[in-house]
């Protein structure tokens, strides 16, 4: 199956571009979540009661078995909620690392090909600028986070296995307490939904990063941040408002009320919402205004890439 994925049969330019993105960004796509997941597993083995160490929750210390005993005293629904939320929260180190990979991959997406002159080779191939930009955008917004979800799923299963070992020699049933209370398919669907909704809301920011990447002669990060910082400073000085900074923060943040819905109340983390809750934001006009802005920025990116390679 893997051989059929990485092999290009016949004329398939977009698949070729996607494979190019994998080979050029395999550290961001695969290596980074793999390393973070491995480190997290090692920390769990060392620090979560496997060798008698303590888990610190709300300034109280528990061994792993004491923690399981405390969980067993809760009613079934409360236990399921706490366990599933804990499994989701345990994935945050992976998602934070992957978020940085998404940002820097977008910033370097169209700059690196000019830096190493590989743009000359790809411009000689029968692929359009639209296909090239689309492949890079899909890699940043979908491929990188979706591959990370695969690693978070492995980490969740690992945590359940660790908890199962801790029930050996006790009166607790690992199946009833852990495996029966967790809902891994629902957690997987929640994470995939979160990636899609986050991608839609943050698309204007990542489209701006790609525009900065195609414009920058050096250091795309400065090209992307300095104009925004200056515009925000001018807004603060002349209008005493911070709408631009709030727009960037809300769109770029992993946990933002705009990613759920716009009632102005304090939200739970996006990963703790049901997929239905998340997709309610599809009807928000601000989402569609952001998508329109994204389309304009991406169109400008395509035009500039075409001109810079002439």
How do the helices and strands line up, and which of them pair or pack?
Blueprint: H1 2-6, H2 13-24, H3 26-47, E1 55-57, E2 60-62, H4 64-72, H5 76-89, H6 92-108, H7 112-115, H8 118-123, H9 129-166, H10 174-179, H11 184-215, H12 220-239, H13 243-252, H14 275-279, H15 285-308
Antiparallel strand pairs: 1-2
Could you walk me through the main structural features you see in this protein, from its secondary elements to its overall organization?
72% of the residues lie in helices and 2% in strands. It contains 15 helices and 2 strands. The protein is mostly helical. Strands 1-2 form a two-stranded antiparallel sheet. The two termini are 39 Å apart.
Q: In sequence order, what are the helices and strands, one letter per element?
A: HHHEEHHHHHHHHHHHH
Contiguous uncertain segments of 5+ residues: 256-272
How many strands, what sense, and barrel or not for the largest sheet? 2 strands, antiparallel
Rounded average pLDDT: 78
Structural class: mainly alpha
Number of beta strands: 2
Q: Beta-strand level of the residues, as a percent range?
A: under 5%
Described by the principal axes of the CA atoms, the overall outline is: globular
**What value does the Rg take, in angstroms?**
23 Å
What is the share of helical residues? over 70%
Report, as a whole number of angstroms, the end-to-end distance: 39 Å
Q: Please, how many helices?
A: 15
Q: Order of strands across the biggest sheet?
A: 1-2
List keywords for this structure.
310 residues; mainly alpha; two-stranded antiparallel sheet; 2 strands
């Amino acid at each position: 199956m893997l051989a059929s994925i990485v092999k290009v049969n016949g004329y398939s330019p977009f698949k070729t571009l996607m494979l190019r993105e994998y080979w050029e960004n395999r550290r961001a796509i695969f290596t980074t979540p793999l390393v973070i997941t491995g480190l997290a597993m090692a920390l769990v083995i060392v620090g979560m009661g496997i060798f008698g160490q303590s888990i610190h929750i709300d300034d109280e210390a528990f061994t792993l078995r004491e923690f399981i005993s405390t969980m067993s005293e809760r009613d079934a629904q409360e236990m399921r909620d706490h366990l599933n939320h804990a499994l989701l929260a345990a994935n945050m180190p992976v998602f934070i690392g992957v978020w940085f990979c998404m940002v820097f991959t977008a910033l370097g997406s169209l700059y690196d090909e000019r830096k190493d002159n590989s743009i000359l080779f790809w411009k000689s191939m029968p692929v359009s600028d639209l296909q090239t930009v689309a492949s890079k955008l899909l890699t940043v917004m979908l491929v990188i986070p979706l591959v990370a979800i695969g690693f978070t799923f492995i980490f969740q299963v690992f945590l359940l296995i660790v908890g199962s070992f801790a029930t050996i020699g006790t009166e607790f049933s690992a199946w009833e307490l852990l495996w029966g209370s967790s809902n891994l398919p629902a957690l997987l669907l929640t994470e995939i939904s979160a990636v899609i909704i986050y991608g839609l809301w943050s698309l204007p920011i990542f489209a701006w990063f790609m525009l900065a990447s195609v414009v920058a002669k050096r250091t795309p990060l400065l090209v992307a941040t300095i104009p925004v910082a200056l515009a925000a400073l001018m807004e603060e000085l002349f209008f005493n408002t911070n709408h631009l900074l709030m727009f960037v923060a809300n769109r770029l943040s992993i946990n933002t009320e705009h990613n759920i819905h716009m009632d102005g109340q304090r939200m739970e983390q996006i990963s703790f919402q049901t997929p239905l809750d998340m997709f309610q934001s599809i009807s928000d006009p601000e989402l569609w205004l952001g998508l329109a802005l994204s389309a304009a920025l991406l169109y400008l990116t395509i035009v500039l890439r075409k001109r810079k390679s002439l």
